[in-house]
Amino acid sequence: MGILSDNRGLSAVIADVADVAGYIWQKGWGERNGGNITVNITSLASPAWASQPALTEPIAIGCTLPYLKGQYFYAKGTQKRMRDLCKAPMHNGSIIRITDDAAHYVIIADEAVLPTSELPSHLMVQNYLLQSGSSYTATLHTHPIELVAMSHSDEFLQSEHLTQTLWSMIPETLAFAPLGIGVVPYQLPGSIQLAQATLEMIDRYDVVLWEKHGTFAVGKDIMDAFDQTDVLNKAAMIYLRARSMGFVPKGMTRQQMTQVQEVFNLPKKRG
Ligand code: 13P
Ligand code: ZN
Q1: Which domain does 104 fall in, by range?
Q2: Is residue 92 within 6 Å of ligand 1 at its C-beta?
């Protein structure tokens, strides 16, 4: 019997992860094993988990993350496909517990599926979320086509310019991604350097764009992290669609954008 069998709350969270994995595949953002997800599920842990024997020896995270001591996460498995995960989330991901030294993890359920190679970015950001008292639980890395395409231009490697350009495409982008998008210059996938650069950006922006690679988003839950990414990529699609029709889109004026910010009372920093 799997760990979900007597845990309705956790089953619902994992069902949402599976749905998001399906959306990512349908959008063409998840080629092969592309992209990864973690969700902090500690609030849903049953007391029995503490005595559940680990399926692995402790595995090093690569850094020490004090706020994660004893925390539980669902993580997509490395080399696992989103299109498979949406059908069998516990076969293409696993539940890990961070050990008491806050520098290792063990897999506790259901199978010894090794977590994503981007675990350093996910866990460093999860550590920051706990440290800052945030109620956010989910982190999502994916490869949205249009945003990645824009990251191939020097012009859009400037976070403020990219943010203003995307906000100006449609009022909803500003309304639903009010902190905008921050760009992290290219780093090796899975590296601690990439994780550190992501961490430096994530408290200022809704979504971080990894140059020539993909996005990294945080959310209250996995649907929220997906929506943040989707809203910004939709704006990128509109921008590129206009360019492919042969013109540079005019964009909303500063005045129109300020009006949206004021009328909707949009936050300027993470709440
Ligand atoms: P994983 O299969 O290890 O999750 O890696 C996918 C990816 O997108 C790396 O950046
Ligand atoms: Zn990737």
Answers
A1: 1-143
A2: no
User: Which among 121, 143, 165 is the end of a domain?
Assistant: 143
Q: Tens digits of per-residue pLDDT, 157-188?
A: 999 999 999 999 999 999 999 999 999 999 99
118 assigned to active site: yes
CB-based contacts of 77: which residues, under 8 Å, 6+ apart?
92, 93, 94, 113, 114, 115, 116
Residues 104 and 163 in one domain: no
| 164 shares a domain with 137 | no
pTM of this prediction?
A: 0.98
Question: For residue 19, how far is its CA from the centre of ligand 2 (angstroms)?
Answer: 19
Q: Is 191 in the pocket of ligand 1 (CB under 6 A)?
A: no
CATH number, residue 250 = 3.40.225.10
Q: Which secondary-structure segment (H or E) carries 209? A: strand 207-210
> What is the 117 CA–ligand 2 centroid distance (Å)?
9
